[in-house]
Amino acid sequence: MSSDGHPRGRSSAVDRQILALAVPALGALVAEPLFVLVDSAVVGHLGTAPLAGLALASTILVTAVGLCVFLAYATTAAVSRRLGAGDRAGAMQMGVDGMWLALGVGVILAVALWVGAGWLVGALGAHDEVARQAVIYLHWSAPGLPGMLVVLAATGALRGMQDTRTPLGVAAAGAVVNALLNVALVYGLHLGIAGSGAGTAATQLAMAAVLAVVVARGARAAGARLTPHAGGIAANARAGGPLLVRALSLRAAILVTVWVATGLGAVTLAGHQVVNAVWGLAAFALDALAIAAQALVGHALGSSDVARTRAVLRRTLQWGVAGGAVLGLVVGGTAWAYVRLFSPDDDVRAAAIAALVVAAVTMPMAGWVFVLDGVLIGAGDGRFLAWAGVLTFVVYLPAALAVRAWAPDGTAGLVWLWVAFAGVFMAARAATTGWRARGGAWMVTGATAR
Fold this sequence. Notes:
Number of strands: 0
Helix content: over 70%
Number of domains: 1
């Protein structure tokens, strides 16, 4: 048999669904970390201090946004389940309420980041010129936070409706606009690192406006209301709570990593910024499969199709490991060529190249981890992911502290830091999520996860 019931026919159908969602999602996800890469490339040629300052500032900014990634993930899971259960209007209402929640949280975070920029930078161990550059970037980029969070929620809603092409178009246009604005403001108007922050903020606000209009039109067509609904906002917040805990554990690990790099010296910190930017690009590329898994798993469970859920799990894991292997070869094998785009300093380049090889070796495992995250998020298994996130951070912390205590500045220190992060931390994540996926407790069927 083939498509009428044979496992091979089912696998082919699942592959087509995965690719139909993952390929556009790949473009959108890759476009987002290009913001960081463009900022790094533009600011890096201002000098080592601005690049090191950007490393701290972008880490704080990405942490603030990353803590709110539940706005996308919880919305995708909720919308896809409602869609699978045949409730299109309810699905769009979840998306609208998610955007209102994102706007409120974004305004609060923007004010907090503006006021607390100096304290946050100091808490990461920066001082003198590096700290000054970091604070400038944060002050100019903070107004874009509401836009960034609305983009997350709107994108989550569209993914739940199995539309990954619209976010692709908006993200691609945003990446181009961001690059042009950065060059114009930093070098054309000689605003330095402030121009980079302002350009990114303006671009994110424009992207949010476009995506909000798209979701609003879809909601109106489905018969959903556009005004905020207290019950829907509360439901989004409750669903996102466990994912917030998960995000906190992930961001805590990233912050600890930056804190360790800062303590090892300017060369290690600048090199870490380069490696982290490339890792982010690769991670978001692998996350395209996780996005497909979220939407497909949520839809399958919403329609009570456990067999299709298992098929999506199996095939996305296979794609994830294979994709990680390919990315690892590209990232590690060509590091010598692209690292020079980020810094003219030979010591920074040497450290970054060596650490990128370490990161490349672990990418097949990263592909496994990201896909399993997507599957469990799509299933609404947030409580387990919250506990697993705390456990993996506890496992990683001693390894990071050991690097801080004994590793030297430069190449050796950065290599050991990435052995700890890409090796120990990712292995702990792989073990916990892999154990969960082997069972069936996460496969709760129906329009809601719990």
